Amino acid sequence: MVDKKEVSKVQIEDDMIYFQDKEETPNYYETAAFEDPDLVERLYDAGCSFDRVVQKEMSPLLSFLLTWILPILIFAGLGELLSANMDKLHKIAKYLYEQETITGEEFMKLLEEKEES
Where are the transmembrane segments (predicted)? Predict the structure, then answer.
C-alpha cells in the first residue's frame, strides 16, 4: 500500500503502527511494529501525514487517591472485618486443629453459633 501511495495517515507507536487509506470513506488498519529503518522515509515519500497519540495523563489527585488512599481503605476494611469476626475465626481454627478437617455444614454451624458472653 505504501509503495502504491494508497496510505494517507500513519501513526507509529512503540509496538503498533496504525494507518488509514486514501479512500473516500477511509479504512483503518493496524499492524505490529517491525524493524524497518527506511519506513519513515518511504512513508514520507509516499505523501503520508504523521500523527501520534498524545497520552492523557491522570490527574495527580486521582492518581494519589487510587494508588494510596483506596488500598489503605481496602486493607483497613479487611482488618475491621477480620477483627469483628476474630472469635469465630478462633473457633474454626480450634476445630480444625482438633479435627484436621471440616465440612461445609460444620463450618456454617460454627459461624452461626451465638457468641457466649
Answer: 61-82
List the helix and strand counts (H, then E) for the chain. 5, 4
Alpha-carbon distance 30 to 87, whole Å?
58
pLDDT at 23: 84
Q: Give the pTM.
A: 0.45
Could you tell me if 1 and 21 are in contact, meaning their C-beta atoms sit under 8 angstroms apart? yes
| Domain ranges, ordered by start, for the chain | 7-51, 60-112
> SS3 for 46?
coil
Map grid coordinates 471440616 to a residue.
102
How many CB atoms neighbour CB 43 within 10 A? 20
Burial class from Cβ neighbours inside 10 Å (0-12, 13-18, 19+) for residue 9 reads: middle
CA distance 32 to 13: 9
